[in-house]
Amino acid sequence: MYFEMFKTFFKIGAFTIGGGYAMVPLIQDEVVEKKEWLSDEEFVDILAIAEVTPGPVAVNTSTYVGYKLKGVKGSIVCTLGTVLPSFLIILLIVTSLWKYRNNAIAEKAFLGIRPAVAALVFSAVYKIGKGMNVNKYMLAIGLITVLAVVVFNVSPIIIILVAAFGSIGYYKNREKK
Amino acid sequence: MELLKLFLSFLKIGAFTFGGGYAMVPLIQNEAIEVHGWLTNKEFIDILAIVEMTPGPIAINSATFLGYKVGGILGSILATTAVVLPSFVIIILIAHFLSKFKDSPYVDWAFIGIRPVVLGLIISASISVARNAFIDFKSVIIGVVLFYLISFKNIHPILSIVLAGVAGVLLF
């Protein structure tokens, strides 16, 4: 099991290019769809936690999944798996490949990879949304979030906190009635 | 002494980078260039380019890179550990706390409200990725074809990245 966990997050760490949400589709594919270690809802909950806590999203997610599966030991295994590929690749680059940094072929490859990363993230939204049975209220909140972040530059942390307390207030109030 | 400073610097960067990704760039810039003088501005930009082209979280890559520059292999291990440590500890505390309170309706209610927000955040992230990615007609085609293959034909995300890299070399 530990080896399986390590291998899964090693793969995620090795193929997440561009950082941040670029790893969402990979984690969704491996951890939710293939291994079924998390449901779509749990995965989205973890993303929310990763967003309101400091640190890279990929690292936070792997720590959380590891803890959920096998406690502290599991979280160490998964976090190491995520971090190790980039650690090794960067060491390889600084020790031997630094001189090729303006390589034309690599640059062209990345012109192709960037749209792929965008496609991956869009398709993760599509798959997660499908898995969660999005209703019209959720859709509205989602769209308001996009507007707030993209157009008005509101901090994601603030939106998450407002949504959390707003939702608690709403359900508490409904319970009373 | 330099190694201790390195460790503390990246501990600080790890503890105050919310949202991941590029959020930590200004923090690293401040610590590495202005406070400690470990890098020049030009070196920093070169590092960012490399970091963007290599897999893995940007914070990890920059920590490994800078750690190596300041203190060799040992430096890179120290800096990488330091940048991961704060979130590692915080996440374990939260996971522990949540598993204790998982039957509380308040936790449930909070997450019901948060879930659609997270979907919105991922969409926002993909919009900002798309802005840099779709620079011409060819890149839009690559994006649309891959979206179709990934969403409806279930090709593996890793395979799609490799295919896109090859397409990039051939088309551009």
From TrEMBL, chain A:
Which residue windows are transmembrane per the record? 9-27, 74-97, 109-126, 138-171
Recorded GO MF terms: chromate transmembrane transporter activity
Q: Which domain of life is it from?
A: Bacteria
Keyword field: Cell membrane, Membrane, Transmembrane, Transmembrane helix
Topologically, how does it sit relative to the membrane?
A: Multi-pass membrane protein
Which Pfam families does this UniProt record tie to the protein? Chromate_transp
Where in the cell? Cell membrane
Quote the cellular component terms of the Gene Ontology held in the record: plasma membrane
InterPro entries named in the record: CHR_Transporter, Chromate_transpt
Q: Which family does it belong to?
A: Belongs to the chromate ion transporter (CHR) (TC 2.A.51) family.
Query: What protein name is recorded for this chain?
Result: Chromate transporter
From TrEMBL, chain B:
Spell out the molecular function terms from Gene Ontology: chromate transmembrane transporter activity
Membrane topology recorded in Swiss-Prot or TrEMBL: Multi-pass membrane protein
Provide a GO CC annotation, any one. plasma membrane
Main location (coarse class): membrane
Keywords attached to this entry: Cell membrane, Membrane, Transmembrane, Transmembrane helix
UniProt-listed InterPro entries: CHR_Transporter (IPR052518), Chromate_transpt (IPR003370)
Put simply, this protein is called: Chromate transporter
Per UniProt, subcellular location reads as:
Cell membrane
Please give the family membership noted in the entry.
Answer: Belongs to the chromate ion transporter (CHR) (TC 2.A.51) family.
Q: Where are the transmembrane segments?
A: 6-25, 73-97, 109-129, 141-171
